[in-house]
Amino acid sequence: MAGKSKIEWTERTWNPIRGCTRVSEGCRNCYAERMAARFSGEGRPYEGLAVITASGPRWTNEIMLVESDLEKPLRWRKSSMVFVNSMSDLFHENVPLDYIQRIFNVMARANQQTFQILTKRSTRLLELSPVLLWADNIWMGVSVENQEVMHRVDDLRGTGACVKFLSLEPLIGRLPFLDLAGIGAGLLGCMEGIRLLAHNAVIDKILIRGWANLKEASLYLGRSDTFLRRYLDQPGDGNPDPAKLNGKKGQKDWTFAVTELDRFNKDVLRASVPTVDSGGVEIRNSQLANRRSR
C-alpha cells in the first residue's frame, strides 16, 4: 500500500511490509495497529496481521512481505518525501535481511525521492547497518518516547545513515538530557509531541556539539548569537563563558537550558536542521521549509 499522507513531516507512504509487534511503551496507542485491525477482515489488506480484542486492537505478530509494492517508488515521477513502512517496522526481527537489503536497493535507485525510515528496533538497525546501502536520499530515524529508550539515539549515531533524525512521539516520559550530537536532521517529526508536553518541562537540557563559537552556532541555526545567548546555560554548567567565545578555536559541547520549552522549540529547534550534516551531505532546505510550513 502506498499513497499520499496526512503526516505533517512527510508527503506519502510506502509499505512493502505489513504487520508489527509491540516493543515498548511507545507502542501502546499505535495508530498503525488500530488501522490494521480495521482492515483485517477476510480478503482485506491486513487479514491475519491484527485483531480486535477485549483490550483493543492488537498485532498478531505476523509479518507480510508485500512483493507487489516493492518497486513502486521506481514508477513515481514526482519527487517527494516518502515515509517507509508507516504500517510496520523495517527492522522487525521477522523481516529477513535480504528483503531489507532489497528495500534499500530500491530506495537508492529511486534517487529522485527522499525516504524517511523510522524504527524502535535500534539494536537490529545498528547490527545490520554495515551491510546496508546508505544512499544519501535515505533518512534514518528512531523513536524516543521516554528515558528508558534513550539508547536508541546512541544506536542511531553508530549507523552509516547520511541523515539521522529523531521522533519524540508519543512523548510519554521525561528526557532530562537529550544529546543531539551527530543527529544531522535535528528533531524532525517530534514538534507536535514536544508542544503538547511543553508545560511539563519534559526536556530539561539539549546538548548540541561541534560549534567553535557562538557565531558559528548562529550560522548553523540561522539565528543571531545575541538571540542564542538567551537559551545558553550559564558558564560552569558545561559551557564556556559566552563573553569569551567568539574567536576561540576548536569544537565545544553546548548545553541549552530549556526553561521555556515551547518558545525554545519554535525559535530554535525548527531552525536547527543544518545545511550540511556531519557527514557532509547536503539537505534540501526547500523541502525542509515545506515540512515546517504544514
Key terms:
disordered C terminus; 2 domains; 9 helices; single chain; three-stranded mixed sheet; 24% helix; six-stranded mixed sheet; alpha/beta
Structural class designation: alpha/beta
Largest sheet data: 6 strands, mixed
| Rounded Rg | 20 Å
Number of strands: 13
- Residue runs with pLDDT of under 50 for 5 or more positions: 185-202, 270-294
Termini separation (Å)? 24 Å
Widest β-sheet, arrangement of strands: 1-2-7-8-9-10
Structural write-up:
By secondary structure, this protein is of the alpha/beta class. It folds into 2 domains: 2-171 and 273-293, no CATH class; 189-262, no CATH class. Helices cover 24% and strands 20% of the residues. The chain contains 9 helices and 13 strands. The longest helix is centred in the middle third of the chain and has 13 residues, at 97-109. The chain is globular and about 60 Å long. Residues 185-202 and 270-294 have low confidence and may be disordered.
